[in-house]
Structures
1.
Amino acid sequence: MTTAGPTELELRRRNFKAQQSTVQTRKQQAVCVRRAHKKYGSKSQPNIILDGLNMTVPKGCIYGLLGASGCGKTTLLNCIVGRKRLNSGEIWVLGGQPGSKGSGVPGPRIGYMPQEIALYGEFSIRETLKYFGWVSDLSTEQVEARLEFLVNLLMLPDPDRQVKCLSGGQQRRVSLAAALVHDPELLILDEPTVGVDPLLRQNIWGHLVEITKHGRKTVIITTHYIDEARQAHLIGLMRGGYFLAEESPEQLIVQFGAESLEDVFLKLSVIQNMGKRRRSSILQSVTDAIPIPAGSVNEGAILDDEVGEISGEFGDNTSMSGRSARRVSIAPDASVETIPPELPPEEETEVKWTDYLKIVKWSHMRALVWKNFLWMWRNIPVMTFIIGLPVGQMILFCLSIGHDPNDVTLSVVNNEINYPMERCEYKAGCNASYLSCNYLDYISNNYSLIMNYYATEAEARQTVEKGKSWAMLVVPNNFSDSLRSRIDNGKDTPSWDLAGSVIDVFSDKSNENIATFITRDLLFGLEGYAKSFLKQCDIDPKVFGIPIKFETPIYGYGSPDFTDFAAPGIILTIIFFMAVALTSGAMLMERNEGILERTLVNGITGTEVLFSQVITQFVVMFGQTTMVLVFAFPIFQLTQNGNWFNLFSLTILSGVCGMCFGFVVSCVCENERSATYMALGSFLPIVMLCGIIWPIEAMSPYLTWASTCLPLTQATESLRCIIARGWGIQVPAVYYGFLSITLWICIFLTISILVLKFRKG
Ligand SMILES: Nc1ncnc2c1ncn2[C@@H]1O[C@H](COP(=O)(O)OP(=O)(O)OP(=O)(O)O)[C@@H](O)[C@H]1O
């Protein structure tokens, strides 16, 4: 669609006047790009995308950015909206440099529609527009009014339908509506008409023409339908990192005597290619055969494909770099010298020092937190799983870790009895014939050991060697008599009785834990049996006991309990890593679907995104922590002698710490896969080094030092002190845990904020 007759504004758009390139003139454009260089890839293999590109978008125009796929249009737009950084060059947007304080860019002055859909599939159209409207400081009533208008303009379906249920074309229109909802000064649309039918495309262009009519709004649009760009006031034809031409479509068509813009683009591309090979005489003849309108092409592009400026800059066309000054811009109509007086005023925003102190904006926080909760509400099965998962892990821990092994089999060769003719059974009394049978019976009854009897050592040894039994016990044939002699004679016991009163144990120590349990049971069992036997003989049991007595412990448990030892570390680890997974997952989802980029262009800051996630995830973590603690203590009866508040707050802090680590993971990693590697890669070191499953005192001295600095080490020790010793916050071992984890939260948050701030392009 074209407007009838040249308006004053159109005249202005066509009028160029050579003048000095000053910051002043650059600030007066809607967008002004100078000597832009942007490359991806490494130093040795750079992929140069923008190569000295100049671009001038006057206020109040529709600027069509055209070029082949992959030529760098999206990259250029991302640099303009402040989401990517140039390697060198300058960009001015609405009078300021993107990202500088007070420029308003990124912010609600811009409406940005990225190439990807970048919307929340679970939200309805209404909710989507409400979110983007709120982000841009609109009230709910204003959003509703705009919604009605945009539904009509873009022929959107019922606003209460969910975005994920719409067709691809409908989703693109919702995405466009989200960019238009706050009626911004500068609209940047990356291929808004892809997949849109011709009638609707016409509507969209009609709307763009309408909003730019009064010169207050500016539109930059990329499209693959080159001919629809005829409705733009200016077009930039991009190729090889710079513009082949930057001119009004009518003028280009006239100058090149072409039928369509597509023809112009083809001609310019051929000319540019020929310039690259101008030393070839064969190609030179072809070049000569193509009619080139005088002064209409970027000579620099022909002469030297490394250089890049072509801009016929609106009121600024002498601003060429040394290199690009060799180029000839597409000539403006030099006959017209006047510039209409009322250029849109220069945007100057005063920056107060207090602005630097404002970390978050409450309207932004409201929109973000509302959006996060709405997403959760729409994903109840996912959320149930997320809250239920730590509980499941805790139940598994309580059921599986730290308990004594059951039914451990031992192979016994008792040479005191004539096996298999005779049975080895308990016989009461001081004069019982086989004390070994009484001892083995005592052990079987009091410990979870199963005795299997064999006639020969060879048979018994085979069972151990084949893994059917964990140890072989060999009882000497005169064990009972020798033991009695030992008790009766004390230090005068003959050496044969000393040797004859010893049961030999041959263990399978391939499983250290089970071997240790067997050793413990045999020793404690012997002590227990000896005491009962001595009592039956009216002898003081102390005679046989070792001269050390373990009284009731001051803290902790009578018998070693690994479940209670490991529980504090396990609780903190579960909550920490669930938060890592949840946060990095949520952030990466937003980032990779382009939603985060879009939100940041709307003026939301990385810090606000982080804080909103902190608030939302905190609620989730609260639920997770409560459930985990309920299952660990009241239900599974793990020891808890301490203050519930301290226990709860330290667990929550570990979740917050995990959340902040999740932010770091999502900021540093490009995709879910690298995030998974990073999270998994950190899991085992933390579990191994933080004293969760083994005391840090047992580590090598250097590791002990390193371990002390890790996020969960002090916290685990602190939690152990709280629940096992019942210590309060005033005790250093307890508050060190709180301090260390708080310090880690600050470190992770700072890293995330810095990475979000500085990692662009
Ligand atoms: N993050 C990135 N890292 C490395 N290369 C990139 C990155 N983003 C884009 N590129 C490369 O930069 C070039 C320009 O990409 P860009 O998306 O800007 O092109 P485009 O003109 O918008 O293409 P299209 O019209 O197909 O969307 C492409 O070759 C692309 O592969």
2.
Amino acid sequence: MPASPPAEEPALHVEELDVTYGRALSALRSVSLTVPHGGVVALLGANGAGKSTLLRAVSGTLRLHRGAITGGRIRYGDTALDGRDPVAAVRAGVVQVPEGRRVFAGLTVDENLRSGGLGLGRRSPALVRAGRERVFAFFPRLAERTHQAAGLLSGGEQQMLAIGRALMAAPRLLLLDEPSLGLAPLMVHRIAEVVREINAQGTAVLLVEQNAGMALSLADHAHVLEVGEVRLSGPAGELARTDAVRRLYLGEETGTDRPSDAGQGVA
Ligand SMILES: Nc1ncnc2c1ncn2[C@@H]1O[C@H](COP(=O)(O)OP(=O)(O)OP(=O)(O)O)[C@@H](O)[C@H]1O
């Protein structure tokens, strides 16, 4: 008998999302995008464009930053995520690695890893063990430092730990906020490889990066945010060839000078 086809895996749908901070500051306006099952989508944009805000809205952490969704919808498969808390997102399979490698500095590497996936309920020791082994396969350096305080790790090792902690929750969609920020080129290269491997194992990725070259080399699809709005969207390879992206985000000379000649998209 032929095997039945796999059940349709969920995808992330962000539809016409509006977000504000406080009473006045509109951080996102009518932002729509999707991340398909198993895909890698990159979000590019200057400082303050709203990239982290979008990830926070999806992961349910927006309220911790005093932000609020004021319009639109977010769903992951059949699960509505707008207005939910981080535990609901983690249970749905959506986990964020926040910007700035927020590890618990006073806890050991092992304790940090064990804190990943809290909110999933009591998990069997075998499951936790399997999670740690998966993390150590990606990051052997962490295996050598299980009892070391996370605050004493190098910047690159802390980023590994932050990603490892998220992996402990076995995400189906990983939200990565600036994983290369402040890291040496060799470490940036390793992080990019790991993102590729995590994706190859079936986890979709929504990647926010200032390093546009890295992001576009990893992503299938990309969006450019400018002051809270999506200005340009398309397949990553095509976006990388547009004048606007080459000039503004890849630092290349293109012969055009106007910042917003990007139009509304290449696809
Ligand atoms: N907690 C907050 N309270 C008030 N305003 C905020 C808060 N967080 C972000 N903002 C504002 O919302 C807008 C979008 O910020 P956001 O951090 O999402 O941008 P970003 O594209 O991720 O930029 P960066 O690369 O600098 O992190 C900016 O104008 C920022 O000043």
